[in-house]
Amino acid sequence: MAELGKDVVIRVRDLVVGFGGSPVLDRLSLDVLRSEILGFVGASGAGKSVLMRTIIGLVPKTAGLIEVDGVDLGAATMSARRRIERRWGILFQHGALFSSLTVLQNVQFPIREYLRLSSRLLDEVALAKLEMVGLTADVCHKYPSELSGGMTKRAALARALALDPDIVFLDEPTSGLDPIGAGEFDDLIRTLQRTLGLTVFMVTHDLDSLHTVCDRIAVLADGQVITAGPIPTMLASEHPWVKSYFRGKRSRIDGGGGPAHAPERRKPDFGQDHVQRSAVVGRA
Amino acid sequence: MNGEPLLETASQTAVGGRVALYAAGAWTAERAGELERLIDRVVAGHPKVDGIDIDMQRVERLDTFGAWLLERLLRGLGGADTRIIGLAERYRALVLQARELNRTSTAQARMSSLTAALDLVGRTVVHIGRDIVAVVGMIGGLTAAVGRAVVHPCTFRFTSMVHQIDRVGWRAVPIILLITFLIGGILAQQGLFHFRQFGADVYVVDMVGILVLREVGVLMVAVMVAGRSGSSYTAEIGSMKMREEIDALRTMGFDPIDVLLLPRILALIFALPCLTFLGSMAALYGGGLMCWLYGGMSPEVFLSRMREAIDLQDFAVGLIKAPFMGLIIGAVAGVQRLAVRGSAESLGLKTTDAVVKSIFLVILFDGVLAMFFAAIGI
Taking the CB of residue A282, how many other CB atoms lie within 10 A of it? Predict the structure, then answer.
């Protein structure tokens, strides 16, 4: 599955996960490559979130191998595991912000725990993270219950990015957002991925996200990854579920728009924009 | 890979009024602490020069922490003409983005301790005012709900009330019996120990009988129920509010007070007298047992003495208070659940508040009534 010339960050082999009865994931294998955005799709209840939670260690596996950067998580020592955990950030589906801390304190929490920084730098860095995800300074003293859905996702993303992780897991990042908000969030993920060189593992249902930001897509059905690859591979697939998902009624293909339609929702790219402007604006 | 970050001034390279700064190592989150000190030192001691070149060629890694600190260095050097040289292409976007960050101040105005104290007092007064309004509103809402239930008896949730009586009444029986039994025993033991010194053993029965029936029995039960059921009501209905379940009820045309609060409060009003009766009996039993085992007073003597010491009035005084205490506990829990906001912390806070406030009010009510009964000679 791995393409030549790209190194594999997360390697999952023959993973079996079950809760009592029949296994949810049945000998699943998957590679996530460095600096790619992998979209992970599947029917509701197919086990997408279970896979994500198994990789990050919230759900115990029954059998199989999970390697992150060549380290077998099943056999890793506590300290090796901590080092790996330090390198990933997770955006939970509903944000999972700590409700008793302000947004700024939420972002500072992991930084404070892992790094010894002066309170000035702590404030500056946390605010910088919030600004990077498109939140303004007046949000940072609010509590999670005072935020809108989109702001919650952004704040949760800022917390996921707090320690400058290499790998980011996103569980349905655009669910519950309006199409414009979802489009902005997609752009944001793309921009951050480029600037920070992130590897992104994204569980999603959003066809737009899959078309615009994902480098590769993996499809989960019957407890296994049935196909993986870029959009053209998906469109060419003859598997009935993949077919109805990517070429069904709600897909972008319907109505004659075709895949060329896809980039429409995309805004002028933030990161690119800056690189171009650098010659003019920069002090360099 | 994780080389120590470096930032050094090479003064001899100052050509034409320019100073060069050489940066090296890992400018990453792990090294951010050291890096900050380095940067602060450079910023503090930087000479008046025309221009500064920052050579980033030997920087191995850079992340947002490093990019921000570089930006802070640039801002710290202020007006001087600064240039960044040799920055790896892949970090370019990050460094440029850092330029936009932290332009606005987030500092919240800090109050002096005196202002803060006054602020707190003011807020507390406003809170107390709101609490009073909320309690009055709750009583009004309850009265209206009772009225509706009387006019349309079929809308009253009888099943729900029976379930709640089971929860707050029946299931509380063992713990209430145990605790009041022990309290009765302790009262008798203390009485015996001290009264014996002047040969007044028999009056222990008077003390235990009157105290238990009039005050201690009902108070202990009310405190227990406030801790056991008042808190669970607040937490339960508060978390329903957090998850918009209350709103859902409202949109379906139900008044949450009718559906949730009325059955619970009526259950408390019904359960508390029953528990008080049981609790008082257990306390008297505990007292009698203690008199027999510790004071050597036979049960026959205890009972006949008890018959002389107390009358039905003492029993009635205790029992009449119980339903009102149930109402207080229920109403406080109902008010507190309204105050629950979005966070888990506020749920905990309000649950604690509900228990503390209902115990306080119950004791206050008991004290006021004790004076009232004394005044009218009961």
Answer: 14
